[in-house]
Each structure stands twice: as structure tokens, then as C-alpha cells.
Sequence to fold (320 residues):
Amino acid sequence: MCHENEAGSPDSWVLSPALRAEWGLLEGGRGAERCGQPRISGRIVGGGDAARGQWPWQVSIQYNRHHCCGGSLLSAQWVVSAALCFLFCFPQSAYRANLGEHQLFSLSPNRVSSHVRQILVHSDYKRGTPAADIALVQLAKPVQYTDKILPFCLPGPSDSFPDNQTCWVTGWGRTDSGSLLLPTLQEVQVQLIDTAACNTLYNIDPAPNMGRDPVKPDTICAGYAEGQRDSCQGDSGGPLTCDHNGTWFLMGVVSWGDGCGEPNRPSVYVRTVAYGEWIRGHVVSGGQATSMENSISGVNDSRSSFSTYMLLFTTLLMSL
Fold:
């Protein structure tokens, strides 16, 4: 996570009101929590250490108990993350999802560590491209919501977020390409950038392996032309969340970038609204996937041309 040094019923799937109306679904029954409503507030403009419980949907995806990626709690039993995070996928039992996490390397009474029942990677995810870099993780059993563990809201097609809106990205990722993971959850403010404007930035001295216009319609950029505040390696799969009238929506999933906090290189996120029907198809139908698609035993593709891959590769080698 790059930032400037500035001061400053539980089994139900929770949907935004617009998306719930579109799909004809009702709010969960007794005990259901409202999505996107953290019980703790007070953010630092520009970024820094997040307060405990400030981002209650933040998840640490761990492989052999080492943090490798972020994730976001969609419901009591489902987490949204990036396909890249499950590049190796052997064995599934080596993956865990830590919820209520704040300090990676310290014991916490707020932490809930869950085994994984199944991992679903989008069938369009292909090695060497950033397309469809999204995955769903089903937890072994539903978690109980607390003030440190709550779901985000998923935006629907009618939920509007203007370009240049200020949003937040969170994670334990590096502060630059050469540093280590941070022990404390970080937060940083970024601005949404439309696809055309983002491609204009990436077309300035483009990297040879990217070509022109590498940012596609199913993704969204966030950051600043001058750089400095950005996601970085270790943040992959984590949330880009935006506030709309006091409710927080998951706008994007951290996917890729060219360096960390570099000028003209804002980070690129999977646009969650582009995959709303795919998410619904796997999660809404009784909480079970209708098909495994690229299931845990069948994932062989990776996005090895981007820098995030190298962190995951190194982390997994160290843990074997």
C-alpha cells in the first residue's frame, strides 16, 4: 500500500437495495446485518494505519498461514478475491481466510480463521492477461458477524459512482516494490479514473508486454496521475470501496499495476458490477455453486507478466 505521509440471518447474502430489487430478492431474515455499514469510523486523509474494525469486510487470504492476498466479505460464507491469488491451488487445505484481522503477525481476540470449502475462479481468467481476475471463496462454515466482521455492499447497474470520486483501498501490501508486507492494515484514498483516461496514462511510455490500451471495460482504475498513493504487491484481491450516502460498496478488486505509486500508472481493479450475474449465479442459489468452472483442482492459468505474480510466487515458495 503506497501512500503519502499525511496526517490527518447471518447465512443470507447481502445485496444493495438496487441490486436486490433488480434480482427480486428480499433482505435476509432474522438477525440479518445491513451491508456496507462499519460500526467504527474516522479515516486519515491520504492514508496510513487503519483503525481496528474500520474496514470490517477486509479479509487476509493465507497460504500455509502466510498472507498472500486480500479479500472482501460478501456474506457470512463467501469472500470475493482475485483469481491470481489461487494460481497454484494445491492443496486447497493450505488456504485459510482470516476475518477481523488487523495486525498480521499478532494474536487477536477479534480474528476468526476459517478453512475453505471451495474456491471458484472465473472461467475467462487466462494466464498472461488480466481478464476476469476474480474469484469466489466459500468458507467452511458461516461466520458470525461482529463489529469487526461485516459484509460490504455489491453495487448494481443502477448504482452510480462518478469519475474522480474519492474511494479507499485497503490491505497489508508493500509500500513500494522493494519493501516487505506491513503488519498493520493500511488504508489510502484514491480517485476513480475512467477507462479512456486511464489508458491515456498507460500509453505514456508503455511497457513492452502491455501494448496500447491495456485497461479493459471490465476493469476500473483508481489513483492519481502523479502517483504516490496506490495499492501494491500483497494487496491483490483486496477491496476498492466507495461511500455512497453512508453505505460502502465494493467497486473493485485489486488486480494489477505497473509498479507501485508510479506516475501515470494508477492501479487497475476488476469492476465488480461487470461480474454481478456471475457472482449471483454461484452464491444466491442456496449458497452452492451451480458448476465448478475453474474449480480448485482445475486452475492452471496465471497472470505471470504482472508484478503481483512475483510476490505470490515468492510467498508460496517460502511456505512450502
Helices lie at 17-23, 195-202, 276-283, 307-319. DSSP finds four helices and 13 strands in the chain. Residues 56-151+276-302+311-319 form a domain with the Thrombin, subunit H fold (CATH 2.40.10.10). The two ends are 26 Å apart (CA to CA).
